[in-house]
Amino acid sequence: MTFVKSLKAKPIAYCLLLVFSVMSETVSAQSKSSPADSDQLPEVSPAVDRLNLPSISATHTKLHEPSGVQVMRAFIEISPQGLRVKDTETGGVYEMLQDFVGENGWLLDHKRSIFHRVPVVEMPELGAASPGQAASFLGPHPCGNLQAVAQGAGRWRGRAVNAFDCVDNSSTVLTVEFVDQIYGIVVYLQTVDGYIDELSSMSGRDFSDSHFLPPEDYREVEKSEFFFGAPQLAPYLPPEK
User: Fold this and answer.
1) Domains and CATH numbers, the chain
2) pLDDT (tens digit per residue) in 78-90
3) What secondary structure does DSSP assign to 77-115, as a single string?
4) What is the DSSP string of 166-221?
5) pTM as predicted
6) Is residue 3 within 8 Å of residue 118, measured between CB atoms?
7) Which residues of the chain have pLDDT under 70?
8) Which residues of 138-162 are buried (b: 16+ CB within 10 A; e: fewer)?
9) Predicted pLDDT at 234
């Protein structure tokens, strides 16, 4: 699993759903899995045009509109300095943390007071063939590598937004996106297959320099211990006489 940084101005490819779904499934299946299974975890790839990001907290909801199923719900904090995403489905036990300035990423387990450092690697250019790849949710630029076709200003959930159709080279609409006029980021994204990402309860925030770093009293652990727990110690056997 890797975080992905970019030295170019690109929007965030927001894949936190994968992080928390993997966490939940891993915790519930510890007795059936081995540490080697964690090598198959999906990548987390936020590419950041960080200098154009606002400093806010908000709730991120992902749902599948055709079925009415809520896929995930998370509390996020984002600024030019970093990103924190706390899973609300588990009461905030798990959190993803990224320091944009120091280019570091971590997964935190607040129940056990531990964290696991996640590598940060260069990401190649995003392609526009897939709506998922072109997604620009939370980024300052709508549509990613797709063509942004402005649809005018309006109001969404009481907020002033600018709407865009995101089209490919054949003029097919792959995503519909709304950019918040105050915070200047994509706060709503709907794909052609009916998946919706949206922000709600947005509020301006000021964050300290240490807010996007793991707590000093947390212990750093390897991937196997983070996902599968510390290995059990062998029972003590007294030396033979």
Assistant:
1) 3-227 (2.50.20.10)
2) 999 999 999 887 7
3) EEETTEEEEEETTTTT-EEEEEETTTTEEEEEETTTTEE
4) EE-TT--EEEEEEEETTT-SEEEEEETTSEEEEEEEEEE----TTTTS--TTSEE-
5) 0.72
6) yes
7) 1-51, 120-135, 231-237, 241
8) bbbbbbbbbebeeeeeeeeeebebb
9) 62
